[in-house]
Design a protein that fits this description.
The chain has one helix and 25 strands. The protein starts with 27 loop residues before the first helix and ends in an 8-residue tail after the last strand.
């Protein structure tokens, strides 16, 4: 199954959407899964990304799952994203900092199953990656220019989505999530800022871009890292790396962000994450190198082990989007892993 929505990428105006009230608390698991399935054209995932009228069981085939390695030998892989139209996976490969500011170069690699790897964009300066809703552009957290960029897939030309906040340079944008109406959310820790001056007064934040305008979501987090949207667009998840927590934000239909709560109280060094079509949350941990899986209510459901160190990010892909791709491994021998799961995921 492939999907190719026709929504305009990064539209200036938010689309009108139908909202569904989702109950909270421990009893929310089944109700939220049902609500996700019932939505038509949700503001989170692009239309067709998650099937409607489907009831899901457990996401993992067992409580503890091992993901085989596809290939290693990369420097430091991050930010995988599946491109359904081409049937390939893109990911950032960062190397050691260079130059007077000690900024890390980055290349976007392409994996075409079953075993082909090549360079998609050299000198991309990227970390986290996502797709626009029409699947024509790659949205990238680009630390080389301390910005959020878009690369057109057809010719690899680059444009800028967010250059600064109120005239001040970002630290080093790290990860991105894109709504189907073009609203972009991104994290801004200082991991790849290098020796460049701090213009954020020591704050590391989460931002939103809508209609070309950058607004602050939260500047109280210590080193926000991975960021993901629920398929129905009602929740935004952010891993605070230096706090060992995952936070959950209420998202309004217009894309604005409301109340914050703790979704997971402890996970060692949360890095990148993703969400499946039932609303289950998958988050990588730098502390134990596992992928931890949680229900929409935050109940632990199991773990996936890709390797023994350095697990950084995850993305759903494959023809039916039931393959979870994982970037993991030590510096200089970072690798790509994959495992087949029971529920398709939102492949942004």
């Amino acid at each position: 199954m492939t999907w190719r929505p026709t929504l305009a990428a990064l539209a200036g105006l938010c689309l009108a959407v139908t909202t569904t009230t989702v109950p909270a608390g421990a009893a929310a698991d089944a109700a939220q899964a049902s609500a996700h399935a019932a939505l038509a054209g949700p503001p989170g995932a692009p239309p067709g990304a998650c099937p409607t009228g489907v009831s899901y069981g457990p996401p993992l085939p067992a409580s503890t799952v091992t993901a085989p390695r596809i290939r290693g030998g990369f420097t430091f892989l991050e930010g995988p994203v599946w491109v359904a139209d081409g049937g390939y996976l893109l990911m950032s490969d960062m190397t050691a900092g260079t130059g007077p500011y000690n900024v890390q170069p980055s290349t976007i690699r392409r994996f075409t199953p079953p075993a082909t790897f090549d360079t998609f964009i050299a000198n991309a300066g990227s970390n986290g990656l996502a797709l626009t809703a029409d699947a024509q552009q790659l949205v990238a957290a680009t630390h080389d220019q301390r910005s959020v960029s878009a690369y057109r897939l057809s010719d690899r030309t680059r444009s800028t989505i967010a250059a600064n906040y109120q005239g001040r340079a970002f630290n080093s944008p790290n990860d991105v999530a894109v709504r189907s109406d073009g609203v972009v959310y991104f994290t801004d820790p200082n991991f790849q800022r290098g020796n460049r001056p701090d213009q954020m007064s020591g704050r590391t934040s989460v931002f939103r871009v809508s209609g070309g305008q950058v607004s602050l979501v939260d500047d109280r987090l210590r080193q926000p890292n991975g960021i993901s949207l629920s398929p129905d667009g009602s929740a935004l998840y952010v891993g605070a790396y230096a706090e060992n927590k995952i936070y959950k934000y209420v998202v309004q239909p217009d894309g604005s962000v409301g109340a914050r709560s703790v979704f997971v109280n402890y996970i060692g060094g949360p890095d990148g994450g993703t969400v499946d079509c039932a609303g289950n949350v998958y988050w990588t941990s730098g502390g134990d190198s596992l992928v931890h899986v949680y229900s929409p209510a935050g109940t632990p459901l199991g773990t996936i082990r890709p390797g023994n160190t350095g697990t950084t990010n995850v993305a759903f892909g494959g023809p039916d989007r039931q393959t979870l791709f994982i970037t993991s491994g030590s510096w200089g021998d970072s690798g790509l892993y994959s495992v087949r799961l029971n529920i398709p995921g939102y492949p942004y």
